[in-house]
Amino acid sequence: MRVSTRPLSLTMRVLLFVAITIIGCFTFVASLINSSIEHHFLQQDSGELQVITQSVESVLSQPFQSQKQLENALSIAVVGHHGVYYQVNTLEGELVYQSSHNDFTELAMRAKASQGFKKENIITWHTGSKAYRALVSELETSKQHYKIAVAIDMSFHLRFLTQFKQSLWVIMLGSAVLVLLVAWIAIHQGLNPLRGLTQKMLDIQTNKMDVRLDHNNVPVELENMVQSFNVMLDRLQSEFIRLSNFSSDIAHELRTPLTNIITQTQVGLSKSRAVVDYQELLFSNLEELERLTKMVNDMLWLAKTQNGLIKPKQQILQSHDEIASLFDYFDALAEEVGICFKTEGENLRFYCDQLHFRQLLSNLLSNAIRYTPKGASISVKSEKVSADTVCISVVNPGEKIPAEHLPYLFDRFYRPDKSRQKHSDGVGLGLAIVKALAEANDGAIKVYSDEHETCFSVYLKSAKLT
């Protein structure tokens, strides 16, 4: 079973980033301070070792009459240096002098010796529980070849460093906790505008779709989000209004045929009638039911198209061939109302589902026939508007469609005005289907209307010659 993990909150993400940064910075600072102190102690001890080594070498370089005089001179060679020890051996390891009970013979014999003081030869020497910083040097006189071992007790340094490290970590841990606490408070306060936006968003209901967030009263980081949210609300409000109008329109469109069916049926059943009368009643009801069926089928088809459930099978079509086949289909109807058809433009190749294109153009021709005066002609033009696009236009003379109605012509059940509605025996879905068909085939449709003519233009992808 797959367990979904919830993403970390913004507060936790920022706190984790701050914590990692603090740990990294404090660790670096602590290492730097510790290294600096150790280097300071090394420099201090190095200076001590140099002074002591030079003092002992100075004494050994002097001539003495007896061993006793040499030992007395070595005993007073170093004065005022606490925790400093030195020992002199011959090259063979024989003890000449040691300043304390600590035996550094092993150190003198094993450590790398140098002529005089050399800082790079300083080593750390451990014996038992003690730790020393030591230097072994060699001195050759006219009488003897000596090895000098000088050591400084590091106990004080080590105790200081241990206590300092403990104090330093306690201070840094406390500082880290304090910084994280301050960071949490700052983040919590910084997110207050988001909480305010959340409350305002909760106030937006279906009956308050006109409420908008003020992008001038939010931090600059949230300005784009607020503007995008307002744009989304604009789209939702527009679609909600259209959906509400659509619900009202469909209720009105369904009520009329249903009322007709019910009324005619009630009248027919009010008294006994002849068989012919019942047949007429059934024929009338059948017409209304067929109209309802067509309306429902068109609505279902539109819903499938707009949700991507109908996939067009695009093929290369010839504009004049498709237009001619539709003219043949509408010739009888056009002749009945005294209208003729004309084909204009060049014969173009384009991509479209053939059934879709014929239904699209059929709806446009049906619409043009309804509003074209008797004796006039309807033109279907085909032209290439760019290297990749062709335009098929249906142009008919007639009264102008007001400009304010043009953006809504392709909405379901929309009719510009009552005067045009009386000419129509459709249900107001024809142009909505035209738009859906064009968009399903990666095309578009536009409409233009003036005092002389109305033009519906369909734009489709051009097919190049092979």
UniProtKB/TrEMBL annotation:
Membrane topology (UniProt): Multi-pass membrane protein
Catalytic reaction equation(s): ATP + protein L-histidine = ADP + protein N-phospho-L-histidine
Subcellular location: Cell inner membrane
Species name: Pseudoalteromonas lipolytica
NCBIfam families from the UniProt entry: cztS_silS_copS (TIGR01386)
Ranges of residues in domain HAMP: 188-241
Chief location bin: membrane
GO terms assigned for molecular function: kinase activity
Enzyme Commission code(s) on record: 2.7.13.3
InterPro entries cross-referenced by the UniProt entry: CusS-like_sensor, CztS_silS_copS, HAMP_dom, HATPase_C_sf, HATPase_dom, His_kinase_dom, HisK_dim/P_dom, HisK_dim/P_sf
Lineage start: Bacteria, Pseudomonadati, Pseudomonadota, Gammaproteobacteria, Alteromonadales
Histidine kinase domain boundaries: 249-464
Top EC class for this record: transferase
Record-given protein name: Sensor protein
Keyword line: ATP-binding, Cell inner membrane, Cell membrane, Kinase, Membrane, Nucleotide-binding, Phosphoprotein, Transferase, Transmembrane, Transmembrane helix, Two-component regulatory system
Task performed by this protein: Member of a two-component regulatory system.
Transmembrane regions: 12-33, 168-187
Keyword Disulfide bond: no
